[in-house]
Amino acid sequence: MTQRPRLLFLSHRIPYPPEKGEKIRAWHMLDHLAERWDVDAGFLVDDRADLAHLPVLERRCASVHWRPALHRLGVAARAVLRMRPGLPLTLGWFHDAALAAWVRHGIGARRWDAAFVYSSAMAPYAMGPAAAAGIPRRVLDLVDVDSEKWRAYAGNAGGPMRHVWSREARTLLAFERRAAREFDRTILVSAEEARRFAELAPESAARIGHVDNGVDLARFDPGRGWPSPYAAGAPPAIVFTGTMGYRPNAEAVAWFAEQVMPLLHAAGVAAAFHIVGANPTPAVQALARLPGVHVTGSVPDVRPYLAHAAVAVAPLKIARGIQNKVLEAMAMARPVVASPQAFEGVRATPGRDLLVGDAAADMARLVAEVLAGAHPGLGTAGRDAVMRGHDWAATLRALDGALPAPRAEAGASARRSFAGGGPGRAAAA
């Protein structure tokens, strides 16, 4: 029987379940690649509850190799201890010696026909002369230009953190450029993000491309009978969805609650702001003390909150790539009001498919207009837009161009002898 080509897939977090941005993209990439490749997946697990989902990955992959991530303080300590002159803390944050040893073993055994590495943090595992010689093709998905996020943090900070984040922005960009020179292909989450990275890394511009984020249109289906999570008779719901331990999300909801909601109340607009997402910081939890603001924390499913919302907002001031929260709300046929930063990369027309506003007064006005019925058909137009531009089945075709599967008989069969588990077997490396 002809053997399929074998692929090393590395990600900094377990790629299932796909309930937040980075895991959504990673899972759809892995699932798509597994159609044509035998995939050996290696990743870190920062939430032990996610291990309940390992059987899904075991069924989809030839083998699964995971390592427990340290708790936050332990990770931070490890990152500091591994800090080297000129290198970003990010690399130490996601380094695991046992996972690195497993990868080195596979490279030495010439196990893989190609490697797909998800995020700059995992790039070191598949870099160096041995990896270049042992893996015929390597593709790096930076997702977004992470160094630009740290640059934005530094621009908004003062004191020692301004120095820390400026250093991280500078050193991480240098590493991103080095990785792009070494990998055969570097992809990002949108054409806009790819253009930006090509400007920052002109020496690698010819090998930089993009695979747009998509949305699972069958999963985010407004036609299903979702039960309402909102109290009967409650005012119209304004909803924000996202992981609330993530700083840009936390800052976005704080700004909206403190700056936009008072403007709506002053204008006599009856509405409640619902912050829906896991791991709210103490500062986010405190927002629930404000009039008309509700903080849910983790919920089993965000879709009912979207389905019954009057409007979804994405008021991010720091954002990289394509925001899944925007795509998902549009897929649910909800009117969306987004900041320019959150709109970047979305294949849609402002004013027709969604509304875009920047200042607090602008966002308050647009939300009030939606609540007053001034934009009929906006939600339907938004779903039509993501169906045209962000269906995973269509966007992932670009991945096949970046990582074409070789003919199975043309070299894959020689890459099989390796101690590490067969189909459906998971191991903590």
Global mean pLDDT: 90
The number of distinct helices, counting runs of at least 4 residues, comes to 18
Strand order of the largest sheet: 7-6-5-4-1-2-3-14
C-alpha Rg (nearest Å):
22 Å
CATH hierarchy, class of the largest domain:
Alpha Beta
Low-confidence stretches: 73-81, 409-414, 416-425
CATH superfamily of the largest domain, by name, is Glycogen Phosphorylase B
Name the features.
Rossmann fold, eight-stranded parallel beta sheet, six-stranded parallel beta sheet, globular
What would you note in describing this structure?
The structure is a single chain. This protein is α/β, with parallel strands linked by helices. It is built from 18 helices and 14 strands. Strands 7-6-5-4-1-2-3-14 form an 8-stranded parallel sheet, sandwiched between helices. Helix 7 packs antiparallel against helix 8 (160-182) and helix 13 crosses helix 16 (378-389). The radius of gyration is 22 Å and the shape is globular. The model is unreliable at 73-81, 409-414 and 416-425 (pLDDT under 50).
